Amino acid sequence: MGAIQGVTALVCDVTDDEQVARLRAEVEAREEGLWGLVHNAGISNFGHVTATTVEDMRAVFEVNAFGVHRVTDAFVDLILAAKGRIVTMSSISVTLSTVLAEPRLGRPVRCVRRAAGRRRRGGS
């Protein structure tokens, strides 16, 4: 992971508030600012929805949705100060769905956004 000059890859468990806080402290201690943040963590559960526990689905959302929020929230001020960039990686699996397959993270998120947009515009 140090193959690109001027780029330092730092790793943490995006589901752990303490690890994210330690990562923030490490970045601040370097006194170099932060130009880029790449969200590359992601998990999936490829089971049928009837065989998927709430705990399994919660784990998927904890990494794929809440982890992105947790890390972005921790670093957004540094990114803005540096006029930097935030990149969120994804997988083609968010577009896939089969009969009785568990919903991929992308589908429920898009549905929530559509519903929220309709409410703001006065739709049903």
Any descriptors?
124 residues; Rossmann fold; two-stranded parallel ribbon; 3 helices; 2 strands; 6% strand
Helix and strand arrangement:
Blueprint: H1 17-30, E1 36-39, H2 54-81, E2 85-88, H3 106-121
What report would you give on this structure?
By secondary structure, this protein is mostly helical. The chain has one domain (17-121): Rossmann fold, CATH 3.40.50. 47% of the residues lie in helices and 6% in strands. It has helices spanning 17-30, 54-81, 106-121, and strands at residues 36-39, 85-88. The protein has a two-stranded parallel ribbon with strand order 1-2. Strand 1, helix 2 and strand 2 form a beta-alpha-beta unit. The chain starts with 16 loop residues before the first helix and ends with a helix. Mean pLDDT is 78; it is low at 104-119.
Question: Short description, anyone?
Answer:
The chain contains three helices and two strands, in the order αβαβα. The chain is mainly α and 124 residues long. The model is unreliable at 104-119 (pLDDT under 50).
Please write the CATH class name.
Answer: Alpha Beta
State the helix count.
3
Secondary-structure element pattern, one letter each:
HEHEH
Domain tally: 1
